[in-house]
Fold each of these.
Amino acid sequence: MISRDYIIFDKNGMHARPATALLKLRRQFKSEISLKKDGTTIQMKSMLNILAMGLKSEDTVTVIIEGEDEAEASRAMDSFFSEDMKNF
Amino acid sequence: MHGIGVSPGISIGPAFVIRKTLKAVSGIIIEGVEMKTIEINKFDHAVEASVCEIEGMKKEGETELPKTLVDILDTQIEFLTDPQIRTDVIEKIEKENKTCTDAVIEVIDAAAAIFENIEDEYLRARGSDIKDIGNRILRNLNPAEGPDFREFPENSIIISEDITPSDTISFDVSRIAGFATKAGSRTSHSAIIAKSRGIPAVVGCGDDLMNISNKTIVLIDGTTGEVIINPDSKIIEAFRSRQKEEREANAMLEKLKELPAITTDGNKITLLGNITGSADLEKLFASGGEGVGLFRTEMLFLGRDSLPGEEEQFNFYREVAEKSGNRPVIIRTLDIGGDKNLPYLNIPFENNPFMGYRAIRFCLSEKEIFMTQLRAILRASAFGNLRIMFPMICNIEEIRLAKQFVQQAKKELLESKKMFNDEIEIGIMIEIPSAALIADQLAMEVNFFSIGTNDLCQYTLAVDRMNERVSSLYNHFDPAVLRLIHFTIREAGKNKIDVGLCGEMASDPLAAVLLIGMGLDHFSMGASSIPAIKNIIRKTDKSKATEIWNRVKEMDNSEAITEYLKTLQA
């Protein structure tokens, strides 16, 4: 299992466009991926659930990955949260 | 009636009222595994059909649809195929014996309610996206009942609870005169799309809007947010003439936009804009602005309870840099203190804030705050044509010190392997008389000057223009102020550095000829003033303007100067 914390860079927070991109990216991996904030954990599968977390700019979110391709998935999440998130 | 004008323009036309609130729950109870399986299948088919519709819209318009619209459609597909929504619907069918239609209504209502309670305005607006996909699924579940939006008479004003993203895309824009909605805010997708398609629109009109009946004549003003039902001929006449004026003004602006700001004898003058963030750029470029002469960064620092961090600042500046492309952007470091106080910095009370701890004085002693901003600006400089400008420089030590900070910030970025433009130009505001008087010496230290006439005028004449008893003394045509401006421009010219002017004087039509005559390189002002100033520049002969300045130079009072300049315009 890999668990890492990320800061939301986009000034609008985790809004519809990045969430859509995140879900598209997530589907490339077999591992179970979930998001955790303030004791709430959700599976990274549902647009509704991701947006309902209400992640704001500069919030910290934990990404938890478990499964056979967890290393690659983690690298992809790394670049999503530290690079791609700045471009929405 | 009044709403929020979100997309400018005036439209008059027959109302076409769309009522499509989610239907009421029927309460029908279904029984047996077989019935339930049928209902679940119905749901899956309706979702599939809905996805096909949206995919169709994407293909239909892919070549002309802007990327933002394609993104919105992708998001809609994500919502439609959301596993959480499916799980909830199936649970209602299987465990609560509900019909598919009832289950969808309840699940969508609950999901929309979650968003409507979120604090964040942007996310709150996503509630209408959820309702939108709910309606689409319901229409595909009961095809006979679906309204067909394409069946409205030409030049209709669409009246609706809310216009959803997919509505705005499927509307035949050429046939709509405008729209007014009961709900919505400036950040709703509908507002954004209406603006990008140039459809006049008013949102957030409130409940009364839905009392309008079909075919009633409605007038909407997307600038002021007015909605008038059954306007009489006088009102229509007044609005028609305003509409005509707006069109003519736009046409002139449009014509001038393509033309260069060049004097009749071929001298190019650069027209730049004053902005507070990337949101101002669209209007600036549309008005013919060739870049940014003053990017006021303090707007990012005001109205919050803590300092913005390096990342947030970097993103804010980068957005402006990127959107401006090759155009120059002069970014002014924090001009805070004085009347612009930040409560969270706890700056002690001052008797004389305009002569106190502000702008560069504050930055040079609050080293961490200054370094954070410089690093953010330098990093953003890798994405466009940024230049740094320091405000309120009063002597040469300050600029030398500020430059050392820039060097230090560059060193730190090199060490952390962050990109920046090493050749970034550095300039200063000339807004304190002492700086204007040593312009020849300061010119050796920097790449450009920008004259801030508002403060220069106030400090030269020792007059607080907010104080009504003395404000009549405040005048940028005062001979002393003009001498300081002229000296600054002349010394910049001798040292071959760029010199601009970014105070209110830059947008004063009377001053334009005089400033050209003094040899000013660039003017920076609010976007809306650019066409008028460009118009004057294009009618001015620079050698004549120089003669005009030579005559003004001999005059000893601002009244005579103003009168003389007025006679030239007549």
Amino acid sequence: MIGDTLTPQTAYAVEAHGLVKTFGDFRAVNGIDIAVPTGTIYGVLGPNGAGKTTLLRTLLGIVDPDEGHRTLLGDPQPLRQSRLVGYLPEERGLYPSMKAYDAIAFMGALRGLPLKIGRERARAMLEAHGLGASADKPIRQLSKGMAQTVQLFGTIVHEPRLIVLDEPFSGLDAINQGKLEALIREQARAGVTVLFSTHVIAHAERLCERIAIVAGGRIRFEGSVAKARDRLRPQVTLRTRSSDGPWRRALPGETLAQDGAWHFALPDGGIEPLLRALLDADAGIESLSIERPGLHDAFVAIAGEAVARQMEEDRAREDTA
Amino acid sequence: MKDMMRSAMVIARRDFSAVIFTRTFLFFLLGPLLPILIGMAFGGLSEKISNDSLRPAMGLSMPPAQAARMLDAREAIARRIGADHISALKAAPWPADPQQLLARSDAGYAAVVSGSVDRLVLTGQRADIARLEGDVRLIASAAEMRATLPEVRVERNPVALSASGQAQARLTTGRAAQILMFLLTMLLAGMVLSNMVEEKNNKVIEILAAAVPIDAVFLGKLVAMLSMSFIGIFFWAVCALAGMGLLAGPGFALPTPAVGWPVFLLLALLYFAMAYCLLGSLFLGIGAQAATVREVQTLNMPVTMGQMVVFFFATYAVDHMGSAPEIAAAVFPLSSPFAMIARAAQDAALWPHVLALAWQALWVALIIRMGVWLFRRHVLHSGTKRPLFRRRSPPAS
């Protein structure tokens, strides 16, 4: 890997404290603390306009923060580590007249990879992903999906230690989304830290070991997906043959009767006392399920209903587009 | 610094190949030759027209013997001082009214000479009379003195060069170099204005800004455009030399500059590069602020006017070596290359050029830095609290 000798591995690939970035009167990033452990897949989750892109651009050193400080691979000047970083911006950009393999090699060369090696790797990558025939085509002749793939290869051709992807799934069809997920996992297995932003909860839930939920320029939650889900207690759904009896006293206070079933959060003492009461009173248990809440439910609980609704709208808009 | 230069070269190589390996570059190379070829064709034609028919001649309406004396005298003077330096005479009908002769559109007389050799009458418009009277008197005097006009012989004592002639010749070389440099800079540096628009429009700027310092982007673009300009200049120079060889023959030579031709040509190359980088970095910085091609087009005119002002300043100073304006033109960064190439033609000292080149290089760096600062602040919306210049911090451990 290029530059392995330049900077020793740090515990956190990215660290920031008290980051503030203002555009005019608008605080896009409003006092964010974040720490991305080395070697993890880390998701920044939030609706459009939450400040995700500005946060990533600030972390990468494209813009400087107004307040706070950040380190990238342990360096307070992120651009100095650019050889070890790959970045896929939200707004994809390639020179239309460049050939596909040359575009990949150029992006690698910007980050210190010799052009010759870059060209060889580019051809191999395109070949391996079934795009060998398009290697010599100019970008303007490629489909949108192919061009995005070319840019993604350009992001990783120099074998970076940290990959930052801003809304990487945006604009990709389901097949290409699956391929991208596989590629992210492959990179993570190789020890690369992957930091990506998304407004699609499912991607974060499938891929991320840790997430930061961002809304209104602030981090509302930071931690593992499991920890986010643990913010909500597991949900119990109970169906009984008998609708009434002394066993009902054992149901928690906030139990909701809906569609012929009882719904309630798993009590602190566990399910056993309720089970015992149901059996003793011969309530006739038809079904009993205990489900851990999904990340979506956790997100609603953490960021609020309005933000969650906005995320759904963003996604629907993107699907329509 | 090494990393920045490496990044700049990556950008330069991309920009250079993106321009060179296109069909439009062929038009770029051939473009400047077309007006020259057309100019030469029309120039030759107009010279012929001017020689043949449009040069005004005076009508000579005198008795035939007197007219013959006048025509002989004019021929004799023309042989001595050159036909271009004495007004032409053309035999006109006699006797005739000079005013009627002037009114004839087919004759094309500028004025009419009538009367006799010792009593001439010059009829024409007031301005023409004032212009031609001296010539007519000279011709008539020669005609009168034909028999007795003494011809004093001059002994020829040729020297290689007089101080005055040498200074004049060198000044000519300096002026020619200045004009050529200005034309090339105006023609080529203006293209830099629109250089960042492509990156901004196709969003590549985000990729570049995340990977390399913006200084490297600016420098790379400047190097690419300068290299492309050198290719153009080389091509045009070869064409020009071939053309001059064809037109002027083997005897054609320019006055030798004070520093000698090899050093002068090297300095011309370096000063052109500096003039290009100084104006180019300024244009790059200005153009980078523009969001669209239309904005760049709007900026073109004021930028060209600015170039003209700089050039006029340097041109004014060239006649006054060592004067305050000349020193000011040499010190002011944007006019410095033009002033200094004129100095190289007139003064053999080399140390001022070393100093000037270093000074100009410093200003290129400063202007790039300023452009980058403005770009980061207004386009990337970054660095509101970042100083224009900052101390290099030690590398992270």
Amino acid sequence: MYPDNFRYTKEHEWVLVEGDAGTIGITDHAQEELGDIVYVDLPKVGAPIEAGKVFGSVESVKAVSDIYSPVSGEVTEINQSLADAPETLNTDPHGAGWLVKVRLAEAGQAQPLMSAADYQDYVGAEK
Amino acid sequence: MVDFGGWDMPVQYTGIIEEHKAVRGGVGLFDVSHMGEIEIRGPEALALVNFIATNDAGKLKHGQAQYSALLYGHGGFVDDILVHRVADNEFFLCVNAGNQEKDYEHIRAANRFQAEVVFASERFAQLAIQGPKALATLQKLTPVDLSSIRYYWFADGAVCGAPARIAHTGYTGESGFEIYIPPESAADIWEAVMKAGAEFGIKPCGLGARNTLRLEAAMTLYGHEIDASISPLEAGLDWIVKFDKGDFEGRAELLKQKERGVSRKLAGFEMAGRGIAREGYPVLIDGAPAGWVTSGSPSPTLNRNIGMCYLPADRANAGQAIQIVIRNQPVDALVVETPFYKRAK
């Protein structure tokens, strides 16, 4: 369910770090809790984002939720396809439903986040 | 699951949009057992009902129901309710879950009539079967001829052999039935309705779909469009206020409001720009504060983002341009006629 090469936050975001690049999304648990996602609000390319701070929001039929960044860096790409197909976040949150790519401010900053196994335990305990 | 007036209730079973579309296109089943029930009976039952509620219960025939409001003396809502006339001297009120104790105390305090007020919630579970296939679904489970129950009428009979009050009412903008049943029969009846509706693609529906359905039909929700600070005239519910039936709680204040006109009115709107309005968001007209959003959501039927808000009464007409402040950004919206959705007759 949760890819082993991702790191996870308590706020239910994931980050995949490859060199100095990070890809950020929300977890399957998050999309499940949100329900039908209808709108995604993302920062612009070039915007700085900061670990633990809000950088965007996802909105389902029932509510709007902030997205917290797992890492600090600068946005290099946003997932344009979500504007027309926000439901991708429900169907493929760990793949095609990625939100933004960032250039990491420093290496190793995702390490303190949860592993897939830890996150699985975390959402298991939350239920 | 969310806590809703002390009840653990699902926001959704399979997904709000899927559940919503089942009700618009087929049939959906809601467990609304959280709703409260209050019985009023005795020689002056009608006098009490007509004193505490704004609509004229004297117009009701046996087996007929009406939408009505309980008001404070200052004209604000205690609750919005359904009044059913069971017999000459017996009425059955369906009230909001979160308000039921307050309603009961309010009615008792006003009772200077020969009438008895009975808190009956623990004796009734309630299921709502809603949608164009609601009748065909429920008909399999009852000997009562459902097609003979007109809209806003009810019949006492049986469902799955259990005593049931079957009302042709609902909170979805579709045709459908609300059944009041013994709590011990509720689980079996739920299963039987799901089975009976299987051929129509029945879906169990949660609070989320209940909200989007009622919003498309522009039906008010206590705590959102109406509360103690809002009067029925402001909420566009003039049609349930019958000034000529004699005195009732709130009448004097409402009469004043009617004579001088209300300063604010409930209006429906559609987003023109990108974004979804939510409860509590500020509303601007030409950049200046003008009101607030009471409910907002994507409309699964219309594929537009809709909502309701309070506006100055002279600016609450269809065609008025407004802006909704969404996360500090004003986004264009337009006042439109309500309901947003009306079923084909």
